[in-house]
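User: tokens in, sequence out, please.
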């Protein structure tokens, strides 16, 4: 816990100054890129944006997503910036309980301090929505007897916040790496989990077979046979903007939802993602196909 506390103190260092409106606008863009509204809105039942209540099938069973509007009783209105950073970086709720990795904090841990501050500024700017049963992300917490075990496993095995290989030197690739491995949490679907429910770093973006109840997803490294090595950057950009694939088809299922996020990015950011995906090392794990 001492190490986690140290990182939390670092995370709480003052962010660069900026106007409130600018911070909110930046936070809104990050929320769109991360698809926060997709998970935290019960669209199928006419739910209000960010008010939670959507049932998501996860490796931990069906989880009702929490209310992340600033309602103080049923949302995150009572959270400090420190509470928010603890949840986003370490998966720890303000009451000390641990979230499951159905909440992609292993990826959000890589977000910068300023971006986390902007994201919270945006969420704080939303109209509070009272929705009992979705308070403070409680629905993402494990059963009490499992919390200590998960906390110990994460403390022993959780990698420090980092960006996946290769070490980006090109600014465009660096931006793409940040969007893929942090904000967009692409590995949440495209990377299999290890035994304690965290992403297997050896298999970043190499596809998942759907073990442990996670979604089945393809290899998106540049392997020419199992991955997207034959795709051009323009074809990747087109998929991110429209959902269209090089063979004239369109993505469906969970990826169709992701495209609704990536379609809201700037063209420069979509091109940065494409450049990064073309730059990562090809990886082949046949059992994931």
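Assistant: Sequence out:
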């Amino acid at each position: 816990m001492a190490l986690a506390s140290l990182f939390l103190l670092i995370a709480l260092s003052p962010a660069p100054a900026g106007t409130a409106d600018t911070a909110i606008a930046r936070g809104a863009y990050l929320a769109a890129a991360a698809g926060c509204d997709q998970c935290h809105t019960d669209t199928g039942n006419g739910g209000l944006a960010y008010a939670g209540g959507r049932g998501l099938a996860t490796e931990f069973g069906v989880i009702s997503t929490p209310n992340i509007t600033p309602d103080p009783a049923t949302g995150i209105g009572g959270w400090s910036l420190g509470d928010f950073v603890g949840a986003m970086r370490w998966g720890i709720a303000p009451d000390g309980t641990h979230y499951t990795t159905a909440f992609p904090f292993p990826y959000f841990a890589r977000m910068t301090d300023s971006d986390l501050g902007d994201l919270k500024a945006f969420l704080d700017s939303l109209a509070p929505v009272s929705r009992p049963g979705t308070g403070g992300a409680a629905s993402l917490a494990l059963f009490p007897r499992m919390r200590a075990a998960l906390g110990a496993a994460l403390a022993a095995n959780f990698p420090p916040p980092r960006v996946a290989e290769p070490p980006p030197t090109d600014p465009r690739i660096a931006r793409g790496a940040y969007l893929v491995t942090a904000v967009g949490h692409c590995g949440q679907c495209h990377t299999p989990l290890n035994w304690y429910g965290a992403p297997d770093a050896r298999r970043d973006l190499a596809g998942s077979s759907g073990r442990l109840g996670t979604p089945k997803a393809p290899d998106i490294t540049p392997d020419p046979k199992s991955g997207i090595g034959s795709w051009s950057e323009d074809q990747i950009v087109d998929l991110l903007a429209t959902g269209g694939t090089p063979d004239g088809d369109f993505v469906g299922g969970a990826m169709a939802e992701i495209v609704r996020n990536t379609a809201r990015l700037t063209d420069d950011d979509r091109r940065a993602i494409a450049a990064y995906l073309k730059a990562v090392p090809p990886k082949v794990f046949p059992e994931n196909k």
